[in-house]
Amino acid sequence: MKEKLQKIREHAIAEIESSDGLDKLGEVRNAILGKKGELTAVLKGMKDVPPEDRPKVGQWVNETREAIETVLDECTKRLEAEALRRRYEAEKIDVTMPAVMNKKGNLHPITQVCNQLTDIFTSMGFEVYEGTEIETDYYNFTALNTPQDHPARDMQDTFYLSSEYLLRTQTSAGQIHVMEAKKPPIKIISPGKVFRSDDDATHSPMFTQMEGLVVDKGITLCDLKGMLEAFVKRIFGKQVTTRLRPSYFPFTEPSVEVDVSCFQCGGKGCKLCKGTGWIEVLGAGVVNRKVLEGCGIDTDEYSGFAFGIGIERIAMLKYGINNIKLLFESDLRVLDQIDD
Ligand code: DAH
Predict the structure, then answer these.
(1) Strand pairing category for 242-249 and 206-216
(2) CB-neighbour burial class of residue 176 (10 A; exposed 0-12, middle 13-18, buried 19+)
(3) Closest CA to ligand 1's atom 7
(4) How far is CA 255 from CA 95, 166, 189, 259, 313, in A?
(5) To 5 degrees, how large is the angle CA 84–CA 86–CA 91?
(6) Backbone dihedral region of 36: left (phi > 0), alpha (psi from -120 to 50 degrees) or beta?
(7) By C-alpha distance, which of 257, 255, 252 is closest to 291?
(8) Residue-by-residue pLDDT tens, the chain, 340 positions
(9) Is the beta carbon of 307 within 6 A of some atom in ligand 1?
(10) Which residue in 63, 44, 291 sits closest to 172, CA to CA?
């Protein structure tokens, strides 16, 4: 019996040590110690051993079992460690490797400026009204105190679609729609594309404007000036101030051209401000009574101011762009640089 156990032991240890993986080790364990295993069979045969020999034989069986289990445990640990090492090796990450760069897109500069202006004005309580690009002659001109033979029509070369319809030349057309639809108080901005037959380094046949209109009791030019002052500081910087110059628009009286102190040289005079220290940024004025009355607004009770901003102009000034075409050519080398 002792010899038999010795053989089982030697054979088991040889099998265990030659196992090359945890699966194989499991199979070996089963073949020896499992329900139908070799050593289990010996244990089952104990009933045939004479009672006086049982303690001794039992002890041999136990010793054999312990010896096999010890080797099995060692081998299991070794193979587990080996498997872990291999897994770590396979999953190794080289943290010094250069990362794969994800190219990030950004909004078009016109959209960026439009969003910035919209944020500023909505924070002041303005609502956004989006008009339509095709307008009637009435909304684009006549209702804005610019009837058929008015000389101010020559200020804007218009694309007519028919004798009645045209591509709007100014977002001012939206003012009329808003005033017809809503009673004062009115406080809106209206951003959008406008069209004029005009084409050079600073003009494009299609460009973007943002209109502003405030109508309420007791509105004066001072309210316009105060609001503009706050606005330019937020868009160009705290040190910037405004200056109003007399101008002419048929739908405002008085009309003004608004300049900002040059945010590049601080007013000393540089290339950007053409040595004057001031940069023209928008047109504005007190809404002409005729325009308000045409929309059924009582001018004894209400007055208003309006302004119109050229978005491309603001973008060109802000980001140092010298040709408006750069904003329409979709050249990523240009557009990638402007991410505000
Ligand atoms: N509509 C004018 C233009 O396109 C800009 C403008 C000037 C709008 C004065 C206004 C305003 O609302 O009050 O040239």
Answers:
(1) unpaired
(2) buried
(3) 283
(4) 64, 25, 18, 13, 20
(5) 95
(6) alpha
(7) 252
(8) 788 888 888 888 888 888 888 888 888 888 888 888 888 888 888 888 888 888 888 888 888 889 888 988 999 999 889 989 999 999 999 899 998 888 888 999 999 999 999 999 999 999 999 999 999 999 999 999 998 888 777 777 899 999 999 999 999 999 999 999 999 999 999 999 999 998 888 889 999 999 999 999 999 999 999 999 999 999 999 999 999 999 999 999 999 999 999 998 988 999 889 999 999 999 999 999 999 999 999 999 999 999 999 999 999 999 999 899 999 999 999 999 999 8
(9) yes
(10) 291
Contact assessment for residue 157 and residue 197, using Cβ atoms and an 8 Å cutoff: yes
The half-sphere exposure of 19 on its side-chain side, counting CA atoms within 13 A, is 26
- Cα of 170 from ligand 1 centre, angstroms: 7
Rounded Cα gap, residues 273 and 271, in angstroms: 6
- DSSP classification of residue 125: T
Q: What is the largest CA-CA distance in the chain?
A: 134
256 Cβ inside 6 Å of ligand 1? no
For helices 54-90 and 2-17, the axis angle rounded to 10 degrees is 0
Calculate how far, in angstroms, residue 180's C-alpha sits from the geometric centre of ligand 1.
Answer: 19
Pairing of strands 186-195, 127-128: parallel
Q: How far apart are CA 107 and CA 200, in angstroms?
A: 25
Using N-to-C axis directions, what is the helix angle for 22-33 and 54-90, rounded to 10°? 170
